[in-house]
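Memo subject: From amino acid sequence to discrete backbone structure tokens
Keywords: amino acid chain, backbone geometry, structure tokens, three-dimensional fold.
Body of memo: The sequence and its backbone structure tokens, given next.
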Amino acid sequence: MGYRYFVLRRAQEMGIHGWVSNRADGAVEAEAEGDRQALLRFLDALRAGPSAAEVTGVEERWSEAPPEHTRFRIRSSTPS
């Protein structure tokens, strides 16, 4: 399973909304909304990744904002 599909499945399992996308530089970027405890578990899953992935790091930024997403999806690649 690819990393983006892994992220999608974990988000759906945890009730998290947002998106995941490949960046032009090869990194994967995601935006996630949900319950703080679910988001912390989500971050743990992202750090572990699927068995075929080599996760070298996860950078996180937190903010308080009104929800924008109604589901989690894989988004088209984003430019760097």
Observations:
- Strands lie at 17-22, 28-33, 72-74.
